[in-house]
Amino acid sequence: MIKLIATDMDGTLLDSNKNINPEFNKILNTLKEKEIIFAAISGRDLISLKHAFKDIKEDIIFASNNGNFIVYKDKVLFENYIEKEELNCILPTIRKNAKHFTIYCTKDGVYSESLFPLIAGLKFGLKVKFVKDITRINSNIIKISTFGKQKMINRSLNDLKPFEDRFMITPSGSTCFDICKVGGHKGQGIKILQDLYNIKFEETMVFGDHMNDIEMMDFAYFSHAMENAEKEVKERARFIAKTNDENGVIEAIKKHVLENYSYSYN
User: Fold this and answer.
1) What whole-number percentage of the chain has pLDDT above 70?
2) What sections of the sequence does the record tag as coiled-coil (predicted)?
């Protein structure tokens, strides 16, 4: 019996126009009646994640910043931030390669040391605050995100390789990557929820499409890669859902959870 369903957002629950199918509200209501927990687990910051569900009325667990900041009804369930000394260690490399294309996510806002992300963020409804020196803000940094042209991304990732034993550095899109505290991936976020609510591996269902979803596939028996997912994600998942533009998440939940369909265990 499924007790926890967790889904990525962009490329997974959201269609290509960044919309949630109107039927999803009804699905959530049914899940609530069956006492099945639903979590949105995303690389998005909390504000952006909540905005995506602004028209949804039912209870949702928000596991933002790749599961490094988890909130339910404004109560913080888990927070995993980058310590100041670690931030100071990696900052010179980030500034050298991508100062104008990097944002710093905290639990209460998004910051940048450049004006460009402030303008670019408006396109996605993301309010970015400008600061001259990110180390001087009072809030802890939960996630760092860099975006831009492929050449710059590749150069940045190459220069960041010496830090891979101290940070979780993961591509989160074709032209962007995230930096979190080491071990700070979505799989950890799923494990936190399983421990909090006493939910087993075989009672968990997850959905994802990109490389920052890949660890999550190891923490749920009912692991789903979208048909539009990266090859590596499909190889790690047990099941394939329809594409995000075919309501793959909704269709899988309807068929395999709400219509009393049972999977056969391997």
Assistant:
1) 96
2) none
